[in-house]
Design brief:
The chain is of the alpha+beta class and 228 residues long. It has helices at residues 5-8, 14-26, 40-43, 61-74, 111-120, 153-171, 177-193, 203-223; strands at 34-38, 52-57, 77-82, 91-95, 104-109, 129-134. The chain contains 8 helices and 6 strands; from the N terminus they run ααβαβαβββαβααα.
Length: 228
């Protein structure tokens, strides 16, 4: 498949647009009291290759699942995978129609857990945040666990995220080509290990785009006389 130029060199305005769409969708859930942006979008250091880091405050797992359902209704996703240290529906979401660079890294937290992040940071580092939505929480309805992901999806998600991180570094002229090739091999291996119909989404869709992106960048290197 040919990959359009806008999926290789996205506009810097694309990640903020996606962040606003995510916040609008999550705010439709009455149990959501806060949607907070952090990372490069909060500090204003983002570019067209940036992902979207979002924290969502709900009082209970039921509220998180309801918010995730409303998000999926508003923004269909082609792949979802859980984080290693947080239960679903927290995880990485890849929206349809957007470049693979633009995963939505979404975590659901209670107000108390959110306050700890603001005061203590994440993984020992302080965070800069910007609220996109703030209100008093309402009640949550029943649990929705239709995107609950199992052990099969996590390695593929990690490999996909690892490859996109390597390509981001390469595109920003901060990384070498070697890690891009290595992470592509890992992604191919994890794709072969997936079950036929995993719960997280459509892996062939994101795998095909990852392959096309890799081949396009490799061709650009060869045409420039850099080599593989």
């Amino acid at each position: 498949m040919d990959i359009p130029d806008e999926l290789i060199h996205p506009y810097a305005s694309t990640p903020p647009r996606i962040a606003l769409d995510v916040a609008d969708a999550l705010a439709r859930c009455h149990a959501v009291s806060r949607v907070t942006l952090f990372g490069s979008l909060a500090t204003g250091t983002h570019d067209g290759w940036s992902d979207i880091d979002v924290m969502c405050v709900t009082p209970s797992p039921a509220g998180a699942w309801e918010a995730a359902r409303l998000l999926r209704d508003a923004m269909p996703f082609r792949w979802y995978g859980p984080f290693s240290g947080m239960p679903s529906p927290s995880g990485r979401y890849w929206p349809y129609g957007e470049a693979l660079f633009h995963s939505v890294d979404l975590s659901f937290r209670t107000a108390e857990a959110h306050a700890r992040v603001l005061s203590e940071g994440l993984r020992g580092r302080p965070v800069t945040t910007r609220d996109l939505h703030l209100r008093e929480p309402g009640p949550a309805s029943g649990r929705d666990d239709t995107i609950l992901s199992g052990r099969w999806e996590y390695p593929f998600t990690t490999a996909l995220n690892g490859m996109m991180t390597a390509i981001r570094m390469y595109m920003r002229s901060r990384g070498e080509w070697g890690p891009v090739s290595a992470t592509m091999e890992v992604l191919e291996a994890e794709a072969r290990a997936l079950p036929h119909q995993p719960n997280g989404g459509r892996p062939q869709d994101v795998l095909d785009e990852a392959r096309s992106l890799y081949r396009r960048l490799l061709m650009d290197r060869l045409q420039a006389g850099v080599g593989s």
